[in-house]
Amino acid sequence: MGLIFGTMHLVKKFKLDDPEYVQYIQGLYGAATCLLLALSYYFKAVAESKNDQTPLEYDEPQLGQGSTHVVTTVKEHDLKEITKNRNTALTTAAVVVFMYWKFQFIQPMILQSILPVFNLIKTPLFQVYLLGKPATGELARPWRPENPFASAQPSAQEAAPEARSDSPSRIEEVTESESGSDVDSEDEKEMKSKK
């Protein structure tokens, strides 16, 4: 986060959005994007050459649908992650180039020259394939994207079922009282009295 604000401060202080600097910034952005894509293809070549067929089973969370049980190999898992990272880099490049072409915004180009490289360095792909670290501990597969909001959300153990309004015991209580109760609600009593 400090990197973003620091970069934006440098842009304003050195007036990097002046036309004389634009070519340098475009060159820097092009070099950073090429580096990301080159590393992506390098990771792919290494994953295919290793051909690690170790079975890998895990539950992959789906948006609003619980989770899906995935059975794959280490090679397939890594190739999927590499493809995901490459597609993200290409999509970001398309958006940044469009923003510069259409609106002459140079700040996103400056940020995207720096941030993706720092983000790549923190990925398990970089750590395992380029730095040669073993895929154990935090680098163990399956690799999950880091959730920046995880610290703000309570864990499953912290959320007590009694406190939640949709807990099974609460649902059973409501179902029993609504369906099998001989006691009429206030509205039903008023309706009967009016008849």
From TrEMBL:
Residues 161-173 have a biased composition (Basic and acidic residues). Pfam families: Pho88. Residues 142-195 are annotated as: Disordered. Keywords: Membrane, Transmembrane, Transmembrane helix. It comes from the Eukaryota. Residues 150-160 have a biased composition (Low complexity). Residues 174-188 have a biased composition (Acidic residues). GO terms for biological process: protein targeting to ER. The chain crosses the membrane at residues 21-43. GO terms for cellular component: endoplasmic reticulum; mitochondrion. This is Phosphate transporter (Pho88). The lineage of its organism: Eukaryota, Fungi, Fungi incertae sedis, Zoopagomycota, Kickxellomycotina. The gene is PHO88.
